[in-house]
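[Discussion] Sanity-checking designs against the backbone

I'm trying to build intuition for which residues belong where. Below is a C-alpha cell string of 354 positions. I'd appreciate it if someone posts a full sequence so I can compare it with mine line by line.
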C-alpha cells in the first residue's frame, strides 16, 4: 500500500506540471493572437486612416453667442474679417499688461486665466470654456490686458481685430449695448470668481442680459447702493469718502455688505484695488458705466436654483450655501431679498444723487 501511495503522489505531481505547461501555452497562444490582431488592425488603420470631421468655420462662428446675436447686417462683414486659430495646450492668447489688439472667440476647448492685479487665488476654477469672448472689455475701453489667458487644452478659436470691433460698436447703439453686456459677463467672472465661476458662461451671459441693470451716470452724480445690491464699474472714475479714486474695472459694494458672500475676508480689502466698499460713490469723470446685480438673484443663479418665469423672488429670505475653498466646510448665508430688481428697471437697488 505504501508503494501505491508513493506512485499516486508521483502521478499527481506529473499531472500538475503538465497542467501548468498547458495553461502557460494556452495563455501564450492567446497573447500571440491578440498581438497579431492588434498588429493587423494597426496596419489597416495606417493603410486607411479614419477621417475626423471637423465642424465648418461658418457653423462654429454661427453657433457662438456673440456672433449669433448680432443683426445680420453687421454679422456678415464681421465674419469676413475673422482669423481662425488652433492653439495647443499652454499657448498664450494674450498677456497681462500688454495692449489689446483684438478679441478671441473660443469655439472649442478651454482657456485658463491668471493675474497679479486681480488675484486669481480667489478663484477655484479659473477657466473659460467654449462659447467665451475674451479681450472684448479691453478693446471697448482701450485698456491693457487685465490678465494672462493661457490655453488649458487644444483650442480652436477665432481672432477679430480691435479696429473691426470699433466699427461694429459704432454701427448701432443697441449693438454697443450688447457688446458691453458681453464684456461684463467675462469681467464678472474675473472680479467675483467665487460667485460667477459656479455658473456656466451661458448662465452668466443670461444673468447679465436679463437679471441686471446697466446704468450710465454723469459727472457729479452720487451712486448709493442698497444693502443687497452690488455693482461693477466698467467705465469712468468714481470717488468715495476716505478712498483713492476708483478706476475700472472694480467691484462696488455697499458699506454694510458681508464680504463672505463674495468669498472675501475684511482683511483682504486693503490689498485689493479692484474692490471697494462705501456708503456712496460720486462720479468724477464725464460719465460712468456701472452694472448692478441684486445679491439674492445673483446667489440663486449661482446655486443653480432657477426662479419662476417673470423674474420674481420669494419674499422670504433666501438661504444659500457656499462651499469654502477647502471644500470641506459649508457656510449658510441668509440673504434678504425683500427688495427686488425688476428686469429692465435700471433704478432699482440704486439711489441717484447730485
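Best answer:
Here's mine. Compare freely.
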Amino acid at each position: 500500500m505504501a508503494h501505491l501511495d508513493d506512485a499516486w503522489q508521483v502521478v499527481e505531481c506529473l499531472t500538475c506540471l503538465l497542467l501548468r505547461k498547458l495553461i502557460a501555452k494556452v495563455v501564450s497562444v492567446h497573447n500571440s493572437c491578440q498581438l497579431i490582431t492588434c498588429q493587423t488592425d494597426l496596419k489597416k488603420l495606417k493603410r486607411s486612416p479614419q477621417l475626423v470631421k471637423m465642424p465648418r468655420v461658418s457653423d462654429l462662428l454661427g453657433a457662438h453667442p456673440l456672433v449669433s446675436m448680432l443683426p445680420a447686417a453687421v454679422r456678415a462683414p464681421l465674419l469676413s474679417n475673422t482669423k481662425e486659430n488652433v492653439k495647443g495646450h499652454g499657448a498664450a492668447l494674450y498677456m497681462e499688461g500688454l495692449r489689446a489688439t483684438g478679441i478671441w472667440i473660443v469655439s472649442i476647448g478651454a482657456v485658463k486665466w491668471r493675474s497679479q492685479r486681480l488675484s486669481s487665488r480667489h478663484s477655484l476654477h479659473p477657466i473659460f470654456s467654449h462659447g467665451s469672448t475674451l479681450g472684448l472689455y479691453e478693446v471697448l475701453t482701450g485698456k491693457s490686458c487685465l490678465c494672462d489667458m493661457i490655453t488649458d487644452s487644444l483650442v480652436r478659436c477665432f481672432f477679430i481685430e480691435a479696429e473691426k470691433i470699433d466699427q461694429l460698436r459704432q454701427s448701432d447703439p443697441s449693438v454697443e449695448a450688447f457688446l458691453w453686456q458681453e464684456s461684463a459677463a467675462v469681467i464678472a467672472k474675473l472680479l467675483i470668481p467665487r460667485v460667477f465661476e459656479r455658473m456656466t458662461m451661458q448662465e452668466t451671459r443670461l444673468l447679465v442680459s436679463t437679471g441686471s441693470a446697466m446704468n450710465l451716470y454723469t459727472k457729479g452724480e452720487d451712486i448709493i447702493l442698497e444693502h443687497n445690491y452690488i455693482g461693477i464699474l466698467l467705465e469712468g472714475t468714481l470717488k468715495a469718502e476716505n478712498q483713492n479714486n476708483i478706476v475700472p474695472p472694480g467691484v462696488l459694494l455697499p458699506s454694510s455688505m458681508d464680504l463672505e458672500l463674495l468669498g472675501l475676508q475684511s482683511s483682504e480689502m486693503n490689498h485689493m484695488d479692484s474692490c471697494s466698499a462705501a456708503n456712496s460713490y460720486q462720479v468724477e469723470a464725464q460719465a460712468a458705466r456701472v452694472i448692478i446685480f441684486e445679491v439674492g438673484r445673483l446667489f440663486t443663479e449661482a446655486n443653480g436654483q432657477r426662479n419662476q418665469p417673470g423674474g420674481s423672488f420669494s419674499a422670504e429670505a433666501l438661504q444659500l450655501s457656499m462651499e469654502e475653498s477647502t471644500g470641506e466646510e459649508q457656510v449658510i448665508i441668509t440673504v434678504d431679498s425683500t427688495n427686488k430688481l425688476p428686469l429692465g428697471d435700471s433704478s432699482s437697488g440704486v439711489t441717484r444723487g447730485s
